[in-house]
Amino acid sequence: MKPGLPERDDNPCRPRHFRPAACAPAPLEGPAKQALETSHTRLIIAGALFCLAFLVIGARLVEVAGFKGGETRLARLHVAERPEVARADIVDRNGVLLATTLDSPSLYADPKLIKDPEAVAQKLAALLPDVGESEIAARLAADRSFVWIKRQLTPSQEFEVNRLGIPGLQFQTEGRRVYPKGNLAAHVVGYADLDGKGLAGIERGFDDILRDRHEPVELSLDVRVQYILRDEIARQVAEFSAIGGMGIVMDVTSGEVVAMVSLPDFDPNTPGSANEETIFDRATLGTYEMGSTFKIFNTAMALDDGIATLSSSYDATNPIRIGRFVIHDDHAQRRWLTVPEIFEYSSNIGSAKMAIEAGTDRQKDFLGRLGLLKAPSFELPEIGAPLVPSPWRPINTMTIAFGHGLSVSPLQMATAVSAVVNGGILRRATLIKRPAGYAPSGQQVLSPRTSEEMRRLLRLVVERGTGKLANAPGYLVGGKTGTAEKVTGGRYERHGLLSSFIGVFPITEPRYLVMVSIDEPQGTRESHGFATGGWVAAPAVGRVVARMAPLMGIPPVDEDSPEIRRSLLVDSLSPQGRKIAAN
Amino acid sequence: MSFARTDQSLVAQWWWTIDRWTLLALAALIGFGSLLVMAASPAVAERIHAGGIAHPDGLFFVKRYFAVLPLALATLFATSLQSPRMVRRIALVGFVISLILLVYTFVGGVEIKGARRWISLPGLSLQPSEFVKPTFAVVSAWLFAQYRLRENFPGHWIAIALYLLVVGLLIKQPDLGMAVVVSAVWFTQFFLAGMRLYWVAVGMASGVAGLIGAYLTLPHVTSRVDRFLDPASGDSYQVDRSMEAFINGGLWGRGPGEGTVKESLPDAHADFVFAVAGEELGLIVCLVIIALFAFIVLRGFSRLLQETNLFVVLAATGLFVQFGLQAIINMASSLHLMPTKGMTLPFISYGGSSLLSLGLAMGMALALTRRRFGGVEA
Question: Is A253 in the same domain as A148?
Answer without folding.
Answer: no
